[in-house]
């Protein structure tokens, strides 16, 4: 029973993890992303973290991995905003990360 509890806990955390891998071609992506120039244009405020364990929640903390098989999400950066599923803005401080448009949360977060 204890094993099942920890297995469920691990799977729950993995589901909400925001480990991302940048693909080279649009057809390889789970989510198409556009980086906006201004904060008020973004669906998600993203803070790049240095370690994978810092990106465990679906709160806009992204860890960019070098290996596709380690990523929870494959993203492609589009050239134009109308091609994107999600518009992001990179923030300089961790406490600024988070969702501005809750409707888009389903793209990266389960449940």
Mean pLDDT: 87
Largest sheet: 6 strands, parallel, barrel
Q: What spatial form do the alpha-carbon principal axes imply?
A: globular
Domains, number = 1
According to DSSP, the number of beta strands is 7
Mind telling me the C-alpha Rg? 14 Å
Strand order of the largest sheet: 1-4-3-6-2-5
Tell me the helix content.
10-25%
Tally of DSSP helical segments: 1
Q: In angstroms, what separates the terminal alpha carbons?
A: 24 Å
- Taking pLDDT < 50 over at least 5 consecutive residues as the criterion, the unreliable ranges are 2-15
Considering the chains and any ligands shown, give keywords for the structure.
alpha/beta; 6-stranded parallel barrel; 1 helix
Give a verbal description of the structure.
The chain has 111 residues and is an alpha/beta fold. Helix content is 14%, strand content 27%. The chain contains one helix and seven strands. It has a six-stranded parallel barrel. The relative contact order is 0.29.
Give the topology, please:
Elements: H1 2-16, E1 19-22, E2 31-35, E3 44-48, E4 61-64, E5 73-77, E6 86-90, E7 98-99
Parallel strand pairs: 1-4, 1-5, 2-5, 2-6, 3-4, 3-6
Antiparallel strand pairs: 3-7
